[in-house]
């Protein structure tokens, strides 16, 4: 049994990021045409595009500010012109900021997390789900985080944004389910990515001891979960928050 996404078009926002680029590669390897979204790192997007094209994949690069609805609609038009209608949306982009305590965190950081976690998802839904409704099939996947369940000190803006995003996805799953559109979230733990493989590890020993599998996940583990949810194999899974954390967090009933 293989994950076959031939004939599908996928959008990955934040596709130049550490996890996003592996998601884009993996979806392309499964046969999907991929829209590689970037905000400012066009050289990295171009590099990823050329890599996918080199082994016969189909992709395009698109720029957008994911916190701005007009920018997302312009991106949609660009994707439709190049690749056709989008069947799979992966909302992966998030604004980066410096974590600190609630008393010291800037109000602007809370706004950036709300805009990039909650409003990005709302704008993407408004842009791409109507076409999915007409076809009566689609996949809408958000990248959440294990932090949403941990609620550790200094995480407040990030957790607030991601927990707000969680609410949007659960409601959206109920609103569009009748159209056979699935809406799910993948929640990575502290994941080893390309950048970290080139550096010395060791500061993560304490973290690994708290993980039942006694190790950290790889970026490919996250991409594999995304590819599964994007496929027909996951056609009866919706409204799920799926930790890919080695058991570090476990949603309970």
TrEMBL record:
Domain of life per record: Bacteria
Pfam family, any one: adh_short_C2
Gene3D superfamilies, per this entry? Answer: NAD(P)-binding Rossmann-like Domain
For molecular function, the Gene Ontology terms on record are:
oxidoreductase activity
Q: Does the keyword Lipid biosynthesis apply?
A: no
Q: Is this entry keyworded Coiled coil?
A: no
Alphabetical keyword list: Oxidoreductase
Q: Which GO terms describe its biological process?
A: bile acid metabolic process
> What family is it from?
Belongs to the short-chain dehydrogenases/reductases (SDR) family.
Query: What is this protein's name?
Result: SDR family oxidoreductase
């Amino acid at each position: 049994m293989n994950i076959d996404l031939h004939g599908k078009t996928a959008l990955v926002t934040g596709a130049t990021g550490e996890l996003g680029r592996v998601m884009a590669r993996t979806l392309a390897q499964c046969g999907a045409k991929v829209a590689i979204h970037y905000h400012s790192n066009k050289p990295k997007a171009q590099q990823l595009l050329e890599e996918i094209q080199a082994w016969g994949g189909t992709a395009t690069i698109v720029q957008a500010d994911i916190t701005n609805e007009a920018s997302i609609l312009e991106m949609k038009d660009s994707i439709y012109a190049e690749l056709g209608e989008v069947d799979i949306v992966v909302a992966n982009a998030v604004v980066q900021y410096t974590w600190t305590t609630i008393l010291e965190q800037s109000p602007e950081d809370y706004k950036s997390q709300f805009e990039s976690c909650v409003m990005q998802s709302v704008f993407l839904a408004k842009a791409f789900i109507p076409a999915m409704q007409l076809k009566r099939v689609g996949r809408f996947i958000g990248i959440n985080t294990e932090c949403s369940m941990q609620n550790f000190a200094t995480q407040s803006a990030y957790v607030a944004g991601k927990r707000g995003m969680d609410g949007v996805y659960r409601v959206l799953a109920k609103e569009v389910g009748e159209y056979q559109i699935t809406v799910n979230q993948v929640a990575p733990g502290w994941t080893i990515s390309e950048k970290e493989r080139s550096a010395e590890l060791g500061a993560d020993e304490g973290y690994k001891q708290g993980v039942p599998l006694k190790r950290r996940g790889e970026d490919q583990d996250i991409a594999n979960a995304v590819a599964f949810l994007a496929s027909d194999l996951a056609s009866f899974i919706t409204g799920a928050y799926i930790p890919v954390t080695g058991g570090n967090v476990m949603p309970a009933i």
